[in-house]
Give the backbone structure.
Amino acid sequence: CRIRHYKFNVVLKNTTRLCSSKPIVTVNGHFPGPTLYAREDDTVLVKVVNHVQYNLSIHWHGIRQLRTGWADGPAYITQCPIQPGQQYVYNFTITGQRGTLLWHAHILWLRATVHGGIVILPKLGVPYPFPKPDKEVVVILGEWWKSDVEAVINQATKSGGAPNISDAHTINGHPGPVKNCLSQGAFRLAVEQSKTYMLRIINAALNEELFFKIADHPLTVVEVDATYVKPFTTDTILIAPGQTTNVLVTASLSPGKYLVAASPFNDAPVAVDNVTATAILHYSGPLSTTATKLTAPPPKNATPVATNFTNLLRSLNSKQFPANVPLKIDHSLFFTVGLGVNPCSTCVNGSRVVAQMNNVSFVMPKIALLQAHVFNISGVFTDDFPGNPLIAYNYTGTQPKNFNTMTGTRLYRLAYNSTVQLVLQDTGMITPENHPIHLHGFNFFVVGRGIGNFNPKTDPKSFNLDDPVERNTIGVPSGGWTAIRFTADNPGVWFMHCHLEVHTTWGLKMAFVVDNGKGPDESVLPPPSDLPKC
Ligand code: C2O
């Protein structure tokens, strides 16, 4: 294994999209940022130098960070931010993982433009469990605002209401021609007849789950969130912010140009950016026609398309060789996820939208939780996050009389190597909505999913303990639930939150604190000397 060195200069860069220009925060002047390449077992050192006026931190989304929580990146959770003019070296080893992940800023709304792919190749000599593609291409989906993204969220925080939606989606940084701006370019996916391509698709958008499809070309899904799945073929994939999906696509049609489309999925009555991003799959050589073959994206509320896709995801395991799912459960947890409304004297509206887990809207601390945990600094957090909702109301359907939530920096404590089952239940407060929940520090098995209220007596009987998909980000369906299991084998403080940035901002987040074990390899490593100070 090797040591890979990267340097991320975080700089402003004037960028033109949708026929207008603005300065954006970038890594090395690129949007999306550079792809980080490594191999399983490699050690990666990324020196991040902050040349902008914002506080900064970068998260390596999906990297397990075994015992190296200091390199995980969420600001005020595992580190204090890198202040303007300062730098920090993220130093971590990739253990037992290979596939596609992403890195992104993990503070404010900087993730909108500060993100890029992570490609982890298998160990030398280890093949993929599917035929080797002729070529691999990273495809990053994103969102673009014409106005300054920090201004968008600051404005919403002041009013207490919802922020403006984005103006377009992007594929590798480009929306493709849209109404009012027909001339701009689109990402071009160049292919050769009869070759097979592996697209490493990443959803780096802030606030939207996306459908992705290519005209006439079926997609064979082989991996999600850097774990292999039983291959299946589909014309449309669903991908939530923070998720990654590898698909194989073969250029076997008549040589021409085919539309690639990324469009929103949201089955809640909330405002979404309904502009489809387009790219062109372009055969090399003489084309049979110059017209681009079009495709119609699913409507934004196409729940059956989303559900179908989600239900097809299975790990490579089988009844005979089952996945390593914990069977004996130490912590059986039930968390509601959803929105709420709290009074707000400083807000224009007099109240503000909040978001909660188990009726607690999370308050960000002033110093990093991991530091407070490791150095026993009291008064930063409490470890009384409720394992079940304190007010057991309205999981779905009816609205409560009172939308208020509690606030606090509450964590849930797990013993080293204890096992966890967590049922995440959408509450339908204000409105049922799909929430892509991301857990730092672990992969989890998705053992069950359903619509309506979770029934603790009957639903566990149908849990899939043989070949559940393993991932780091899972959509809790609108008005429904999903059940995950994992083993707390990574000491540290691990953030869990909705990966819709607006919901995270509103407080849909919490953290687990996993204590050190007794063995020498079971505790958090000492912090690096350049760890930023608050
Ligand atoms: Cu990709 Cu805590 O985030």
